Structure formats: C-alpha cells, structure tokens
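Quick start: read one record
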Amino acid sequence: MSEVVFLLVPKLHLLDLAGAAQVFSTAADVLAEEGAGATYRLRFVAEHSEVPSAQGLPLQAETVWPELGADDLVMVPGWRSPKTAGGPRLSAAQVGHLVDHHGRGGAIASVCSGAFALGQAGLLDGRRCTTHHDLQEELARRFPEAAVVRDVLFTEDDRVITSAGIASGIDLALHLVAVRHGPAVAAKVARSMVVFARRNGDEPQSSAMLRHRSHLSDTVHRVQDRIDAHFTKHLRLPDLAAESGVSQRTLTRLFAQAVGMTPLQYQSELRLERAEHLVGQGATVESAARAVGFADARMLRRLRAGAAT
C-alpha cells in the first residue's frame, strides 16, 4: 500500500485538494476490483488539526507525519493568494519533511500555487516546474534557479512534479496513476470520474488508451477496457460484441461514433504505438511485431508506413 500524503496549508483551494485526492481514491477502488494487490491510503497533515479552506469549509488534518517510504507520494495543494503568491509559508519542520522524503527517493508534487512551497523547500532549483498561468512570472522571479515552463498542464523532473492551475491537479494525478499502473488503469479512473484524461501539454502525443476516452458511451468503454487489457491477443469482433451485449453492427456503429474507428482498428493503433515504443528502445521491427501480437513484421511495417504518410 502506498501512502499519498496531502500537506494542507491555510486557505487552500478545495479543488486543488479534492481533484487529486479523488483520482487516488478511485484508483484504489479500481486496483482492488482487479485484485492488483497495490492500492493507496490517503493521509492529510497540517501544522494545526483544523485548516481553513479558501472556500470557507474547515478541514481536519493530522499533525504528526506518518513514516514514509520511497514508493509514497507527498502532494501540496495550492492556496488562495494575490498574484504575488504571498500566501502562507511552510514551517521549518514541514520543509524538513519535504526535503527528507525527496532525499530518500520519494516523489513530491504540487498543484497550482503549491509550487511555491516546493520552491521554499529548495526542490525547484535546477528543475523544470510550472504553476497557474497567473503566477508563473512570480514563481520565476522568486526562485530564479527554477526552470519555469509556461503553458503546460504539468511537469516532472527528478521526482518533483508540479501542475498548473487548480483542475490540472486531476491531470497530474491521472498521469502518476498511468506511470505506476499503466494507461488502462488511468483510463478506468478517468472514466469513473467522467473526466477527459489528458497528458502533459509539452509531450508530442498522448497514449492511445487515453486519447480515445473522451466520450460517454458505456458500451464502448467496456469494449475498450477489454481491448486495452488484451490488445496483443487475437480478438474477434463477434466475441467483443457478445461480451458487450450488442450486435456486431451496433458495436461497430457505436465505436465509430465514439472513437472514430472500428474496434479492430483501435486494437491495431494500440499495437502500433506499443511497437513504436519498443523499436525506440532498441528492439528490432521483427521482435516488436511479435511482442505486440503480429504473426510477422509485414503488418507492422504497413501500419508504420501508413502512419508516416
């Protein structure tokens, strides 16, 4: 079980906290349903047991930090502040917890103005980072050793992860779930939360498993779940239709409306994307083709040629 510890500061934004917390809570449910063994426990710590939020709702928190390991995550939600981000400063003890956790191999993340807390702890020096677009210039001014990246949803550099404004904490958390458990699990979490799973704005493209999930067809989502989990295997349209409880014609029509392609074309896209990754890691085209389920490399070469045109 991994701990996700949220460090709460006075006047924090509820969505900064709740968005990321909901992702990890839902991920724990999804992993439990799949019998994956891995799960998450959410903890909330603060200097005082009651923490006022920017929206007026008081929050309860622990005042003693739990013992953390390298697999655990600490997140700092942002707070309401003027454009100078002159909000609350962390205590020396809180800074020490952040620095110590990162020094032992753990990950530290922030949402919105929470990046200023990471900067106070010296964790942004020499690293790429971001924050809300209204606060980026101030972050760069206050922490000149930080490499502030504009107009991206989130950044990740040496286990220091920062996200842009408020709702982008959901994107950051989905990304972390995808990294730890694969894009199929992240897609299920996004589907459960009825959000569009996005990736970082400075990456050339998102995973196909996430890219084609911005629809609300439950039938198509169920078929995608099946394909995502078994895309390297031979999947027959009649079997997919039977499992989803509709005819082959209806499934093909629904899939085309929601995804813009047939189920088997979707499977081919997943295979191609995985094969390209393997080739990029040094595999031969022949071995990559076999690894993703093609009988030989001819089909993979045709798909690669088609994608290049």
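The two ends are 46 Å apart (CA to CA).
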